[in-house]
Structure formats: C-alpha cells, structure tokens
Amino acid sequence: IAKTHQADSSETPPELPKQMKHDPDEYLHAKKQLKKAILECYRGLEVLENYRALNLIGFRKALKKFEKYTKIPAQQAYFTEKIEPSAFSSGVTMQGMIREMEELYAARFTKGDNKVAKTRLRGFMQHKTHHFSTFRTGLMLGLALPALVDGLYLSFRHDTRQAVPGYDGLLFVYSILLIPVLFSLLLGLNVLVWSKSRINYVFIFELDLKTKLDHREYFEVPALMLSTLCYAFWLSFARIGSSHFSPTLWPLIWLILAVVILLDPLPFYSRHSRFWVLKELYRLLTSGAHRVEFADFWTGDQFCSLVFTLSNLYFVGCAYAGGFDEHWARCLGTEEWGIPFVLASLPFLARLAQSIRRWVDSKLNTHLINGGKYAAGIIYYLVYFNWRHNGCFVLWCIFGTVYALYASAWDLLMDWSVLRPRARHPYLRDELLYTNYIPLYYIAMVTNVLIRFIWVFYIPVRGPSVVLRTFIAGMLEMFRRLQWNFYRLENEHIGNMDQYRVTREVPLPYSVDEIHEDDEDEED
C-alpha cells in the first residue's frame, strides 16, 4: 500500500478544467478593473444624488416664483401632495444604493473597514486650498520678469553682439526652447477657463480624480520651467562667468534641468501629472498600436502646433556640433533638409496613424477624412522644405492653399461644430457655454482661418529674415492652438451632455452577456 501511495504521489496531478484555473496576474488585473468599476459606479450614484437634490431646489424656486406672481400660497400644499410621496423626495433609495456600494467596497478592498472605504470612495470630493501653489507660481513668474527684460536689453547691445559668439544663432536657440515652455504655461489658461465654465475636462481626459491638478496647481511646473529659462537667457547675455562657461552652454544646462524635472520620480512638482504627460508621449509615439482615446489625439494636435520647435531641433544639434561662430547660418541653409522635414512631420504621422486606427475600430469614414487632413499636412511640409532648398514655389503655394482650406474647414465644421446658419446665433451652434463672450466666437473663427494661411508670410522677398518669420509663424500657430482648445473642449463637453455621459466605461473582467444568459437559464 505504501509503495502504491508513493507511486501515485509521484505521478503528475490531473490537469484542471479551464474554468477552474486561476492565474494570479489575471486575478490582480481583474481585481483592479472591478475596483475602478466600483469607483465609477459610486461616482455615478453621487452625480445622481446631486441631480435629485437639484430637482428639489428647482421645484422650490419655481413654486416660489409662482407664489410671487399669483399671490397663491401653493408651495407647501404642492410639496405635501405631489413631491413628498415621490421616490426622489426622500432620497432613501439613493442613500441605500450608496450605502450598499460602500459596504461592497469595504468587504472586498478594505478588509471590512467602512471608514477607509468611504474615504477612498469620496476621495474625489475632497477640497483643498491652493494658496501656496498660487504663491509659488507668482514668485516664479515675478522672478522671471526682470531676468527676461534685462536679458533682452543686454542682447541688443552692440558690445554684447561683439562678445557673444554666434549671437543670432544663440537667440534662435532660445526662441526654439521658448515656444513649448510658453505653450505649456498658457495651457493653464485653457484649464482655468474650462474650470470656470464647468467644462468637465477631468472626465474628457480621463484623469485620475485623486491626483488631478487644479488649474492653480497646474501653473507651478510651467512657471518653474519659464523662470529657469529666463535666467539661462540672462546668464548667456550678461556673460557672468564667461571665463569659465561659454554663453552657449546655458541653454544645454537648462535643457538637462528640464529633463530631470520631467523625469524626477520623487513626489515633488506633481509627479502623477508629469508621468501622465510621459504616458501620453509614449502613446503618441506608438500611435496605431492601441485604441485611441480623446487625450491621445488631443496631445497629437498640440504637437502639430509645435512644428517650429520640432523641425529646428536639427538646427540645435548642428549648431552645437559645429560651434557657434559667424557661419552658424549654414545649419539653416544645409541641403540635408530631410531630417527637419521628418521631425516636423512626426506629429502628423502620429495623427494619421490614430485616424486610421479609429477607422479600423469604428468603421466610420469620418476618421479617414480626418486622416486626409494630416496627410495633406505632411505633403505641405514636404513641398515647403523642398521649396526652401530647390525653389518649387508654385507647387508649394498650391499645397499650402489646399492644406489651409482643408484644415480650416475641419476646425470649424467638425472640431468646433459651428457655421450653422439657422442657429440661434447665426453661423455658430445652438448650444454655447461661453454665452457672455459671443463676439469672441466670430473673432476666433476669422483668426483661426487667417493663421492657417500664415504660410503666405514667407512669400515677400523683402522684410524680416526667414529666421524671424519662422519664429513669428510659430508663435501665431501656438496662439491659434490655444484658442482652438477652448472651443474644441466646449464642443466635446456638449456632446457628452447630449449623450448623458458623466462616468467612464470601465472594462469588466467578464462578459455581461454571459451573466444575462445565466440569469435567464435560472429563471427558466
């Protein structure tokens, strides 16, 4: 018997059915999915509870106004007879559902601790002050201003131009670095206006409710970046320590500092938000390999407005590799224009891949039409760089016109959903959120189209240099994108309102259809 038992124990145990197998990694992944689903469900219940309370307030205000004009004391009688017997009056049902969700979360995720469960579930409802955030932002911007003003003054002095090697090239390097930093700072104005207009950008971008930044907190990191860049600019042209540090070294020092701040794993300067940006950059670089969310293509559109910086990264590398001297302009006139073209086209290629992926997932031809816009943008920059080096002027004008018209039409008709002649405000749309600023809609429509045609600024032979023109065009495109953001998020928010979307659709680790089928079988 002992030998038989030993032989049996040495044998491989029989393979379990697939339904009885449990992968620990899959279990943890499923647990996280269910946890997120409960959080979203709880948030939906809180929104519904707020809606219930808002309805009661609406009834009271309507009846109060009725009493005011008719002099009939009907409020108390109407509430007693009609409102109080209704289910939404007492809120017992809603409170029971909320309590049930809290007990479920406590039983599954906090070891039965109801207090901890309530704290985690209501984390998004916590309010905090932002006095120190506002102070730090103001301090950074206040310190940056004198450095910027004095740096500009010094940079235009004749003795500075003589002492700083490659003075014009160094100014151009700082202009390349300035636009993305200034852009990130001014994006805070977008967040500020969205918050004041009650646009649910947190839901649109699918931000974590526990780690999301208030608009006052958002300004901190961009303000720090801008302040340090202004001081690097001032140190370059003030020539402090020029015997030990070349004026051209300060932009590199600032660039290293910016990368360190962005990649810093320590919990300082909004670590979760910085990592969210890095995650979006990764998703942008891998466009087409995964499902496209709103934050993905919105990020791609932001980079489409940073072509000035992206295309001139080659100039920065060339200037530092060859040295800043009187021949720095050779980096702009090089025949190797393929690299700047590829760098300029990267955001458009990413957006094209995203549009194709969205068409594959949804089968909506609208995404292919949108992808055609980015394909036209790639062709436009191809003929633009070709014109600057080989002189195909007519072809560049043709594609510049086609792309500007294509992009302008998409901006107005699709991204903003305006140009509706029968709307309450002619050529806008029926639903508007910035109702106190109606004239700005028309101004934005005109300026958006005009800046789309900024390429004509390069045509005149006389006037500012090409370097200055590209910088002005880059600044105008940055402001156009900031303006575009206001109305794009407004349109997205209105679309969510029309479809009653206030919570995220969290994927579950099981099929809902199978559960319904099992329920039907049990009923049979």
Automatic annotation (TrEMBL):
UniProt subcellular location: Membrane
InterPro entries associated with the record: EXS_C, SPX_dom
Record's bilayer topology term: Multi-pass membrane protein
Keyword Isomerase belongs to the record: no
Ranges of residues in domain EXS: 331-520
Pfam families in UniProt: EXS, SPX
Domain annotation SPX: ranges: 1-80
Domain of life from the UniProt record: Eukaryota
Entry GO terms, CC: Golgi apparatus; plasma membrane
Segments for region (Disordered): 1-22
Keyword Magnesium in annotation: no
Keywords: Membrane, Transmembrane, Transmembrane helix
GO biological process: cellular response to phosphate starvation; phosphate ion transport
Transmembrane spans: 135-156, 171-193, 218-237, 249-269, 303-322, 368-387, 393-413, 434-455
GO molecular function: inositol hexakisphosphate binding
Family to which the UniProt record says this protein belongs: Belongs to the SYG1 (TC 2.A.94) family.
Record protein name field: SPX domain-containing protein
Species the sequence originates in: Phanerochaete carnosa (strain HHB-10118-sp) (White-rot fungus)
